[in-house]
TrEMBL record, chains A, B:
Annotation: DNA-binding region: 30-49
Alphabetized InterPro entries for the sequence: DNA-bd_HTH_TetR-type_CS (IPR023772), Homeodomain-like_sf (IPR009057), HTH-type_TetR-like_transc_reg (IPR050109), HTH_TetR (IPR001647), Tet_transcr_reg_TetR-rel_C_sf (IPR036271), TetR_C_27 (IPR041478)
UniProt keyword list: DNA-binding, Transcription, Transcription regulation
Annotated protein name in UniProt: TetR family transcriptional regulator
Superkingdom classification of source: Bacteria
Organism the protein comes from: Streptomyces olindensis
Domain HTH tetR-type: 7-67
Length: 195, 195
């Protein structure tokens, strides 16, 4: 048996799927395309992902998880909650801008995929809001923030900063003045949290 | 000469254009279509709008101006700035939701038109931000709000509430809990302004 099929993990399949998406766009990335790229039978891929939809959902989730993974350390750090909040929002904006700016074609492809995979997107938003809740909770405990309901407040902060992380605004992220706009929104929110 | 052509104002042409858009969608609404709907020669329409692009831009501007027109009275009223700000944001959200919900097909048509007419949209945002600046300026003068730069603060408030007026979020406006989300964002921003 060839070593390729022995070492065929879900992660390797997802890496190959992303590579197929990068080369061929969202219309491709079927199980057959991915199996071909890996030089394995499509049966081997099906053992990990039973349908094309499952494969596409998993690769979308992996793409979104990369961002939440990057941010989780900031949310969990044992530091001043206000600094943590500012750093977290800055890192979220930076991560989304990087994804949109560094590889616009792959970003466009994932925009199609996120449109198809509402559950993966909702889970991603829930992950990020949970991280934000943790920071706001910490601020409420130390008395830096006033937040009777940290979860609702986290949701409000997330929604109020949508312009700086919702991929629908990716075009605006290249415009002059966007950093100043971001700072002004974050300052206003932090003042609201402190009050 | 028929009275129709004697009384052919730009406003009447734009009304007819909106009616053509309502019936036939964004692909239609050429000068010829509109002239036919009015029972006049296309030359008469061209005297008011020299190109199809000018006609489509004007009808888009008229649609957007209806919202800013509704809101200008709230911004200009001689009342407590905080109440004015809350009412203004509530009225903006209500106006956008009404447009999206009452006539979804016309809304979709105008979404195509606003995509084509970036200048009309920028002017609309500038109009609304100027109204908001006026309210925040009033709050800064009475001491209810802290805002060193009322224009920058107005821009931040407008951007932070995008979820509740940007047509890109129209799908979310029908979801349960959207009013509570709106209140949470507005409360946080008002707290920030007061601080």
């Amino acid at each position: 048996m060839a070593p390729t099929s022995e070492t065929l993990t879900a992660e390797r399949i997802l890496e190959a799927t992303e590579e197929v998406l990068r080369r061929h766009g969202p219309a491709k990335a079927t199980v057959v395309d991915v199996a071909r790229a890996l030089g394995v039978s499509h049966g081997s891929v099906y053992r990990h992902f039973r349908t094309k939809a499952a494969l596409r959902e998993a690769v979308t989730k992996r793409w979104l998880d990369r961002t939440s993974g990057e941010l989780s350390g900031i949310a969990a750090a044992d530091r001043d909650p206000e600094a943590r909040l500012r750093d977290w929002l800055t890192a979220l904006f930076a991560a989304k801008r990087r994804k949109a700016g560094d590889d616009p074609e792959l970003f466009a492809t994932y925009t199609v995929l996120t449109g198809e995979n509402g559950t993966a997107v909702s889970e991603h938003i829930a992950d990020l809001t949970a991280q934000l809740t943790r920071v706001i909770q910490a601020g409420a405990e130390t008395g830096s923030f006033t937040a009777a309901d940290p979860e609702a407040t986290a949701r409000a902060v997330f929604q109020a900063t949508a312009r700086f992380h919702d991929p629908g605004y990716a075009q605006e992220w290249r415009q002059e003045g966007v950093e100043a706009d971001f700072e002004a929104v974050v300052d206003l929110l932090v003042r609201g949290l402190r009050a």
